[in-house]
Design a protein that fits this description.
There is one protein chain. The chain is mainly beta. Helices cover 4% and strands 48% of the residues. The protein has a single domain, classed as Jelly Rolls (Sandwich). Strands 2, 14, 15, 16, 17, 19, 22 and 24 form an eight-stranded antiparallel beta sheet that branches. The protein has a seven-stranded antiparallel beta sheet with strand order 3-4-5-12-7-10-13, with no helix packed on it. Strand 15 and strand 16 form a beta hairpin. The radius of gyration is 18 Å and the shape is globular. This is Pirin family protein. Pfam families: Pirin, Pirin_C. It comes from Streptomyces pulveraceus. Belongs to the pirin family.
Amino acid sequence: MSNLDRQAALSVCGGRGFVVAEPVRELLTPRHVRLGESTEVRRLLPNLGRRMVGAWAFVDHYGPDDIAGEPGMQVPPHPHMGLQTVSWLHDGEVLHRDSLGSLRTIRPRELGLMTSGRAISHSEESPRSHTRLLHGAQLWVALPDAHRHVEPHFQHHTDLPAVSAPGLTATLILGELDGTASPGTAYTPIVGADIALTAGAEARLPLEPDFEYAVLSMSGRADVDGVPVLPGSMLYLGCGRTELPLRADTDAGLMLLGGEPFEEEIVMWWNFIGRSQEEIEEARRGWMESSRFGEVKGYDGDRLPAPELPPVALKPRGRVR
């Protein structure tokens, strides 16, 4: 999915200087962003208070939207560099096309994982014949320097492993949790899990004390370490935890995001992650000149132009503003 903000700002993220090395409860409120003609997303990362959680560098939550009789999601071809995109649905379908020739329909609780590496382009759209509701999350994972120039590739996993406890099922999206591993390719120590809680459930989820974590609420009413987290908001938890108490008042859906704090500083602008402003400028030029990122075939519409770069020089700010 693209960052469609026409005033995209350059920012530096990463580094351990602002990682919270102890358990905290920091509630992050979303920024509302229009995505195409008919979809509005709630952007949790980057946030006014925090830019990354482990290697997770971008989190959008959208829906549930009633798209009966509507086109639904329509994101034109656009480029990516230096990151992985994670497509995750609770309702609906998303048709993925990319410059490698991939054509896949992603359905609820299936993993669509695109590794951009040095360069890729893709589009995402609701199929012409689609179900009534669209509800999901789109996330980016920053690639470490040693792997950010890998050959681009796309993975679609329809059968993911899960961890279960009374009243809780945690489906592994990426990385490892409680000895269970996702088949998706990861390049840093990381975890992403979709947590389904039944009404009245009380559970404790095992965590890695060296990881930092956040929990995104997708649906229902649940308390995370005693804090009520409403759908579309995210609770940052810091590091130093060995377990996470969860309690559900109703059936509820959560996403656990975590990982080893990302040590490198990165420059993120529009749909690119690099290491310098010059690298970002070169990527933008490559997209606008139709070089490097390939061609997405089959999408009915024009590709997405890049916004103008800001006139100000890059100012490093670390992991938090």
